[in-house]
Design goal:
With 154 residues, the protein is mainly beta. It is 13% helix and 42% strand.
């Protein structure tokens, strides 16, 4: 048990070399994968969303990012500051330990450098997923080697 305050999570499958071993039970069940690139960083993204009266709402996003500019945690933070259009002076982040590395988080996202050039960013809808569930989900994402990528939930 992760200590998360919501229902027990489910497996999120493998995304671009990372196994998302836990997805909070409260997130939507509509799952989509996307590939994109921004400022010389390639993204593999998986989103979990739900249908609402107004359309769809994304509850959870996991980005696996690959790019030469992602050299260390400071470079990753700088990149994400630009990508998410954040004011670096007004972005309160706290450190957390992810395996053998240090990551940063706030109430709606967590990120860490898995190795130079490879990073993971987990984003949640704060009204749907709390900080404890965010952290538990981030900590449940681990590197896999040479594995077929099963569909989410398998």
């Amino acid at each position: 048990m992760s200590g998360a305050s919501g229902p027990v999570g489910r497996d999120g499958g493998v995304l671009n070399g990372f196994h998302i071993r836990q997805v909070p039970g409260d997130v939507g069940t509509e799952v989509s994968d996307f590939a994109s690139e921004w400022d010389d960083v390639r993204f593999a993204t998986r989103v979990w969303e739900r249908q609402t009266d107004d359309g769809y709402r994304v509850d959870l996003r996991v980005h696996v990012m690959r790019g030469e500019r992602l050299t260390d945690l400071a470079a990753l933070r700088d990149f994400l500051t630009d990508y998410h259009e954040r004011d670096p002076a007004d972005w309160p982040l706290t450190e957390f330990t992810h395996g053998d590395t240090t990551g940063l988080r706030d109430d709606s996202q967590a990120f860490w450098l898995a190795e130079p050039g490879v990073a993971v960013n987990v984003l949640v809808e704060p009204g749907q997923v709390d900080r404890e569930q965010l952290t538990a989900t981030a900590l449940a994402i681990v590197t896999v080697q040479n594995q077929e990528e099963p569909a989410p939930g398998q």
